[in-house]
User: Fold this.
Amino acid sequence: MPGQLFIITAPSGAGKSSLIKALLARDPLVKVSISHTTRSPRPGEENGLAYHFVSRDEFISIRDAGGFLEWAEVFSNFYGTSQHAITTLQTQGYDVILEIDWQGARQVRVLHPDAVGIFILPPSLDTLRQRLLTRAQDDTHTIERRLAQAQADISHENEFDYAIINDEFPEAVQDLAAIVRARRCLRQYQFPRYSSALAL
Assistant:
């Protein structure tokens, strides 16, 4: 049976990537879609693992050929999700996570209205500011810009099916895993597994 599609969105610094990494470590049936981006790699990021790092011209070429399920421009960089990669993983039976922003989520749900939307929230804006400072990847001006963008992003949380407050990390991981498990247990997805065996 084809896997399901989960959209996970969060403001920068809310812990989205760490939560997804923890979920992948505990659930072998979940894969994350690796996005294409034109931004420069951060320290420790490898091409093909965190992102597919491409030039602006390469990105535009893929986009214009219809290769992206969704794409967006964030902080002057392009980000896009490969349609082919998602279809391949779902056909293999994996549930697929899209780690994208709210703009991309809107695009995806036009084509996949059954995709599950999950929004990750920080416990407060003060906590978010501290996390961004601790991450030590940006200067003060960039952090303030990210905080302003975070408030704008959070205003779209009502467009999602679930909200997880990432205050206590282990609890937030459990919440995320519970959403995935509950979705798999919906009757419409389980019926093909038991209908023949139970002569239904």
